[in-house]
Design goal:
By secondary structure, the chain is α/β, with parallel strands linked by helices. The chain is 38% helix and 13% strand. The strands form 2 sheets. It has an 8-stranded parallel beta sheet with strand order 3-4-5-6-7-8-9-10. It has a two-stranded antiparallel sheet with strand order 1-2. The protein binds nicotinamide-adenine-dinucleotide. Nicotinamide-adenine-dinucleotide (NAD) binds next to helix 7 and helix 11.
Length: 321
């Protein structure tokens, strides 16, 4: 089995450097996928209320634990707070529901999914609630501030419902602001990060502040082409990019492994997903080689500051949902 290195978080807990993402994992195959990923050696799973599959994730995890493949404490389970639950008094009840879906009693890491608060939608009305108040296209903002939300997140640690807490899709100014009032600092910042969106400034900020970084959508446009996002369709695939292919050939690796190693070599965690067993192993094995300085310099030249996963894309015609 592949040995996955870990990052020591500022909370004192260890987080695996390579994990498994759960966005767009179909409900019908989700329990089997997570069960197979555990068998392949994955220990970190990156879920969210918004992915709409936490109950199935819980079934897969429960099966693996019941069969003695892993213990709960071997796993690192991440989930996220959806925007409609940003008011402080909404946080604990929804986290308890999410934990019940996962059939666990604490999250290893719980993230604020986006620093954007939306009006509450009762889970009895629609769950997961998504971006739109009416489920179709109406955006309704909530007045909850990031400070209020973070206060509620800190309570999760104090109550033992989350071991570490963190943020996702925050930008520099929002992070500096949060650090002024945080009594528990964010352990992890999860952001879109790939050669077309290298985010070097915010990565430096996070490292300087002792916040670990997790990259999502490591293959760039691929994830968003699947969703029909125009800006992604117009970009050259990174998985088939000539430069990445040349570097992959030099090291006897796949382009996907090069894209993942480009992050993990700098202690940036990655969370790719696939339902294919051979690809699961291939992605997990991305830590078994090193890119050289020249490779890193050439990949750096691909930066275009193009962010695919932006609320602006959700609220305009180029919608993802
Ligand atoms: P991904 O990395 O899972 O992959 C995109 C596409 O690449 C998928 O079609 C996948 O099947 C394919 N793929 C995977 N491995 C491959 C390989 N070795 N070779 C060729 N193709 C391969 O992209 P993603 O879902 O955008 O991001 C990964 C995870 O990050 C998500 O599952 C989710 O957990 C997290 N995420 C978080 C946010 C956030 O707002 N915090 C946003 C997006 C994604």
């Amino acid at each position: 089995m592949v040995h996955t290195p870990v990052i020591k978080l500022n909370s004192g807990h260890n987080m695996p450097l390579v994990g498994f993402g759960l966005w767009k994992v179909d409900n019908a195959i989700c329990a089997d996928t997570i069960y197979n990923a555990i068998k392949a050696g994955y220990r970190l799973f990156d879920g969210a209320c918004d992915y709409g599959n936490e109950r199935e994730c819980g079934e897969g995890v429960a099966r693996a634990i019941k069969e003695g493949i892993v213990k709960r404490e071997d796993l690192f389970i991440t989930s996220k707070l959806w925007q409609t639950f940003h008011e402080e008094h909404r946080i604990e009840p929804i986290v308890r529901r999410q934990l019940a879906d996962w059939q666990i009693d604490y999250f290893d890491l719980f993230l604020v999914h986006f620093p954007v608060a939306l009006e509450y939608v009762d889970p009895e009305v629609r769950y997961p609630p998504g971006w739109f108040y009416d489920g179709v296209g109406e955006v309704r903002w909530s007045k909850a501030t990031n400070q209020e939300t973070w206060h509620g997140m800190e309570a999760l640690v104090r109550k033992g419902l989350a071991r570490s807490i963190g943020i996702s899709n925050f930008q520099s100014q929002t992070i500096y602001d949060l650090l002024k009032y945080a009594t528990i600092r964010p352990a992890v910042l999860q952001i879109e990060l790939h050669p077309y969106m290298q985010q070097s400034g915010i990565v430096r900020l996070a490292k300087a502040e002792g916040i670990a970084v997790t990259a999502y959508s490591s293959f760039g446009p691929s994830s968003f082409i699947e969703l029909g996002l125009e800006v992604a369709k117009n970009m050259k695939s990174l998985l088939q990019h000539d430069l990445i292919a040349e570097i992959a050939k030099k090291h006897g690796k796949t382009t996907a492994q090069v894209l993942l190693r480009w992050a993990t070599q700098r202690e940036i965690a990655v969370i790719p997903k696939t339902s294919r067993q051979a690809i699961m192993t291939q992605n997990l094995e991305c830590v078994n080689f090193d890119l050289d300085e020249d490779d890193m310099r050439r990949i750096a030249s691909l930066n275009q500051n193009i962010k695919f996963n932006s609320p602006v894309n959700y609220f305009n015609n180029d919608r993802l949902l």
